[in-house]
């Protein structure tokens, strides 16, 4: 890194700004070295690694089941899908079976967590643009989700709910009705939030046409999830790489339409997430309906978890395709595990898109990509 | 001259303002650091504004603050504060052009002394009367043509500055803010 | 409890108005004081600053949190108390002030010490000075507190007796305000530069470019009101808005009001114009300040809010005027002089208070501009609009008032 700093020493015309690691809008400890001419950036070079906890290395020292709590820490804003990804990868490796009810509970918990993750993404984005009120509004909903997930698994942030071969607990009595009644409450809130901030003239002005990523560029940068879909690429792991019980559920995949400007601009990235709320609600209703017809069994513990070979599972996390690649050597511990996460690739995009933007835009760009620091570094 | 007539609140105020103006004017000329020169200008311009007010020229005094202290000096400070590597900059006003400057200064001083000694300095009693209406009358009725001509000159200077700035920026190949923004909005 | 939020300020304003009336209409003359003298002006300044502006600025810091909390479905600060008296946490600003006073006053190692110290002073001083020209009531006629004065008698008494509720009665009052307000740029610029921090420098630059740009619009937007009321003097402008609500500036100068209010909010550097602070972007020109030095920036911001409200109330909402209220009440001989004085002060204070509240509403509703959008709005939209406003107003004034020279 030091050579990078020297490379960007001031040349007279440019100013080198150090943004982060302790900056309020980098969403955790991320650092950017910014070359600016006044307000206009010439380049923003991301410097990642401040939150590296060697989670993949820890995986090699843990048993397959014992690693589950660590997956929560890969992406603590949407921990449930990381659980799911690890469980799915190990199940594929060990050829383990998951009872149907367990799969439904996974989908339900995933979607609830996706909703709560998007509340953080959209709220924090509005706050980075300067509007504090939407953040508070929508974080109230996140509290409800946290309550529901706490009833389900006892934790509010790092759940450790999924197991290799199912889930840890069945849903408690009455929980299904609570989720359903919360969904009735949440659905109008989506529209309320839409009216509250999305159509605000200033908000649109700040985000429309900002750092538009065309579809081809999005693919070449390896963007995934809502960021990819905002660029108009109709791809969703839940539909296109079917896993769990998603094939049994009906839902749409919202894509960016360039309503306020170019396709794939920051506003599209924002709005796609808002539309995903509606789809998640749809999925939840169906899953909660179908789960009633399943057998009560929700967890089959694999007998001897010493698999050999390699396997990969792809799960649609709130930040897109979360892939886990795991190699087993016939021992209780994995030989190697790797997490492929969405935020890491999105970080690279920032450097490419930063030229010509303003310092204020960088904040909006980071927020629109929904970058979560632990997911970059793992 | 009787001392008691000299020491009234008005004259005390005058001497105070004159001292501020002169001392800070010396600061502008003699300060070793260009930054302190620029800040001394604050005292000079403010002191002159005070003197105007003391003379009953309330409008001119306030406009002096509004235009010079609140506008032009801010621009000067901008230029000074944003000069690269200010710490290494040691401009000493004393060191430049003494041979050329001294005769000019002496000549100017002589002119001012002559002006001061030969003017009659008439005193009027209505010193505190508001001057706004009279100024408006003379600008927009009696001296309308010169007034408009001066504003035309200012406009030309403004347009000229803009043309030069944009051309210089283009030649250096730097992005003009406007253009980079248009690219953004595209 | 909502009614308390209306009742408490009202009671406070009534008390303040009554105190002002007694102080300048009875106490000072009874002690043999001269209302024209410098110490009377000083007392007036002390009254309005210490009695109204400073406490209101303090309360606004609490009110902003509380109001934002209500808008955001939270409770907000409601715990600060004095013994058993909690009063919705109203004493929060006292706790805040104590915290700031006792906090370490940190100066960065490479900062320019002199300019660093000068920054907050230059930010707060202009705001305090500008209150000199704001009229907070028509004024008292000493010795006639219980009489029923006519408008003419009161005007004559004010011209000779000096009991105006205004610190200085300047013929060029609003120009004075613009001149002093233009000095506030120094506070932000100096603080930003002297901190020896690139972020604060960026904030200072943003602040100075923003304030200088919007000053132009502000000055031009209010020119229309000058044309309509034919004066630069705030008290005279207020006097001209007396008869009915139709004479208020907001009716005669609707475009001027919108432009001026927008530009004035931009001058206060608050959302949506808070790019110099931009707490999620550049953190602001005061990023290196702590303790009471930061407190002075903070206080200056809220006093600017109050001052903006005061000037907008004066020029566009009839200042202390209650439509139809003359010096002797709504009908001739109805009210004694002291009651009218108090009522006028209350009217002024309520208008200022409501406008402050309105500014807080805007603060918590809007996202922030981007610097170039801000400049674009200022120079390409507001400025031409304010020029057009002047032209239209001048034309209308010329057509409607053949008497205008």
Describe the 3D structure:
The complex is a heterotrimer of chains A (378), B (186) and C (405). By secondary structure, chain A is an alpha+beta fold. Chain A has helices spanning 2-7, 55-61, 68-72, 79-94, 100-129, 133-153, 175-198, 201-207, 215-220, 225-230, 237-240, 266-290, 342-353, 359-368, 373-377, and strands spanning 15-19, 31-37, 40-47, 162-163, 166-167, 308-317, 320-329, 334-340. Chain A has one domain: Orthogonal Bundle (Cytochrome-c3 Hydrogenase, chain B), CATH 1.10.645. In chain A, a hairpin with a 2-residue loop joins strand 4 and strand 5. In chain A, helix 5 (100-129) packs antiparallel against helix 6 (133-153) and helix 6 packs antiparallel against helix 7. Chain B has 186 residues and is mostly helical. Chain B has two domains: 3-130, NADH-ubiquinone/plastoquinone oxidoreductase chain 6, subunit NuoJ (Four Helix Bundle (Hemerythrin (Met), subunit A)); 143-186. In chain B, helix 2 (9-30) runs antiparallel to helix 3 and helix 3 runs antiparallel to helix 4. The longest helix of chain B is centred in the last third of the chain and has 28 residues, at 144-171.
Strand percentage of chain C lies at under 5%
- Largest sheet, strands/sense/barrel of chain C: none
Summarize the biggest pleated sheet of chain B.
none
CA-atom Rg of chain B in angstroms:
22 Å
Radius of gyration of chain C (CA) equals 22 Å
Mean of the pLDDT scores of chain C?
85
**What is the H-and-E element order of chain C?**
HHHHHHHHHHHHHH
Mean pLDDT of chain B: 77
Tell me roughly what share of residues is in helical segments of chain B: over 70%
SS strand fraction of chain B = under 5%
SSE pattern of chain B? HHHHHHHH
Helix content of chain C: 55-70%
């Amino acid at each position: 890194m030091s050579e990078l700093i020297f490379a960007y020493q001031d040349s007279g015309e440019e100013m080198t700004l150090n943004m982060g690691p302790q900056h309020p809008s980098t969403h955790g400890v991320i650092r950017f070295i910014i070359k600016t001419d006044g307000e206009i950036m010439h380049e923003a070079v991301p410097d990642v690694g401040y939150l590296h906890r060697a989670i993949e290395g820890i995986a090699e020292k843990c048993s397959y089941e014992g690693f589950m709590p660590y997956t929560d820490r890969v992406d603590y804003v949407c921990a449930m899908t990381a659980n799911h990804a690890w469980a799915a990868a190990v199940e594929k490796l060990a050829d383990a079976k998951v009872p149907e009810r367990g799969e439904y509970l996974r989908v339900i918990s995933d979607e609830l967590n996706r909703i709560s993750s998007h509340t953080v993404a959209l709220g924090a984005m509005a706050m980075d643009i300067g509007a504090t009120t939407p953040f508070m509004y929508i974080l109230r909903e996140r509290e409800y989700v946290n309550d529901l997930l706490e009833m389900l698994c006892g934790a509010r942030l790092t759940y450790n709910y999924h197991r290799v071969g199912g889930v840890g607990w069945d849903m408690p009595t009455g929980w299904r009705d609570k989720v359903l009644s919360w969904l009735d409450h949440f659905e109008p809130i989506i529209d309320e939030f839409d009216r509250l901030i999305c159509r605000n003239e200033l908000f649109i002005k700040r985000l429309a046409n900002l750092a538009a990523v065309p579809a081809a560029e999005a693919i070449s940068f390896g963007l995934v999830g809502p960021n990819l879909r905002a660029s108009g690429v109709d791809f969703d792991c839940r539909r296109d790489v079917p896993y769990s019980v998603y094939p049994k559920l009906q839902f749409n995949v919202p894509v960016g339409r360039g309503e306020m400007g170019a396709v794939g601009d920051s506003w599209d990235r924002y709005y796609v997430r808002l539309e995903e709320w509606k789809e998640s609600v749809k999925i939840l209703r169906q899953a909660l309906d179908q789960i009633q017809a399943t057998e009560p069994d929700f967890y089959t513990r694999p007998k001897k978890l010493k698999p050999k070979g390699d396997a990969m599972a792809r799960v649609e996390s709130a930040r897109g395709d979360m892939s886990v690649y795991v190699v087993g050597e016939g021992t209780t511990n994995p030989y190697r595990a790797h997490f492929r996460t969405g935020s890491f690739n999105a970080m690279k995009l920032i450097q490419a898109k930063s030229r010509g933007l303003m310092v204020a835009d960088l904040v909006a760009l980071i927020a629109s990509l929904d970058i979560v620091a632990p997911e970059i570094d793992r | 001259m009787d001392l008691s007539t000299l020491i009234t609140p008005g004259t005390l105020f005058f001497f105070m303002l004159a001292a501020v103006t002169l001392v800070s004017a010396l600061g502008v000329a003699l300060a070793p650091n260009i930054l302190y020169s620029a800040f001394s200008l604050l005292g000079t311009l403010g002191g002159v504004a005070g003197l105007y007010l003391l003379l009953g020229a309330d409008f001119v005094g306030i406009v002096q603050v509004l235009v010079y202290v609140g506008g032009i000096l801010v621009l000067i400070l901008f230029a000074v504060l944003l000069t690269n590597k200010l710490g290494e900059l040691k401009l000493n006003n004393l060191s430049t052009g003494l041979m050329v400057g001294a005769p000019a200064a002496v000549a100017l001083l002589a002119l001012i002394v002559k002006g001061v000694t030969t003017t009659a300095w008439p005193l009027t009693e209505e010193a505190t009367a508001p001057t706004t209406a009279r100024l408006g009358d003379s600008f927009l009725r009696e001296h309308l043509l010169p007034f408009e001509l001066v504003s035309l000159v200012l406009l030309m200077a403004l347009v000229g500055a803009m043309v030069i700035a944009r051309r210089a920026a283009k030649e250096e190949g730097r992005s003009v803010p406007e253009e980079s923004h248009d690219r953004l909005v595209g | 409890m909502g009614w308390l939020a209306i009742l408490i300020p009202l009671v406070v304003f009534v008390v303040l108005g009554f105190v002002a009336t007694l102080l300048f209409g009875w106490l000072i003359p009874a002690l043999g004081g001269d209302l024209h003298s410098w110490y009377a002006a000083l007392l007036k300044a002390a009254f309005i600053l210490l009695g109204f502006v400073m406490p209101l600025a303090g309360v606004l810091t609490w009110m902003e949190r509380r109001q934002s909390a209500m808008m955001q479905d939270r409770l907000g600060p409601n715990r600060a108390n004095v013994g058993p008296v909690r009063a919705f946490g109203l004493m929060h600003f006292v706790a805040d002030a104590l915290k700031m006073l006792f906090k370490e006053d940190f100066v960065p190692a490479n900062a320019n010490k002199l300019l660093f110290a000068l920054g907050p002073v230059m930010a707060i001083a202009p705001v305090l000075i500008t209150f000199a020209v704001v009229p907070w009531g028509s004024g008292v006629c000493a010795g006639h507190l219980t009489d029923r004065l006519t408008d003419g008698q009161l005007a004559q008494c004010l011209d000779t007796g000096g009991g105006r509720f205004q610190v200085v009665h300047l013929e060029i009052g609003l120009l004075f305000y613009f001149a002093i307000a233009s000095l506030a740029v120094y506070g932000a610029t100096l603080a930003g530069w002297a901190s020896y921090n690139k972020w604060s420098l960026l904030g200072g630059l943003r602040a100075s470019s923003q304030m200088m740009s919007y000053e132009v619009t502000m000055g031009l937007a209010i020119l229309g009101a000058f044309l309509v009321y034919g004066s630069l003097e705030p008290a005279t402008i207020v006097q001209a808005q007396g008869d009915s609500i139709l004479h208020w500036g907001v009716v005669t100068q609707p475009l001027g009001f919108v432009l001026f209010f927008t530009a004035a909010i931009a001058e206060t550097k608050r959302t949506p114009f808070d790019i110099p602070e931009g707490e999620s972007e550049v953190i602001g020109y005061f990023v290196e300040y702590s303790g009471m030095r930061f407190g002075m920036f903070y206080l200056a911001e809220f006093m600017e809010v109050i001052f903006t409200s005061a000037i907008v109330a004066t020029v566009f909402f009839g200042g202390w005027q209650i439509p139809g209220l003359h010096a002797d009440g709504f009908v001739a001989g109805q009210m004694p002089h002291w009651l009218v004085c108090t009522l006028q002060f209350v009217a002024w204070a309520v208008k200022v208070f409501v406008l402050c509240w309105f500014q807080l509403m805007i603060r918590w509703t809007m996202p922030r501009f981007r610097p170039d959008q801000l400049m674009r709005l200022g120079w390409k939209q507001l400025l031409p609009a304010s020029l057009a406003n002047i032209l239209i107003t001048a034309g209308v004034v010329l057509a409607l008032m053949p008497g205008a020279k």
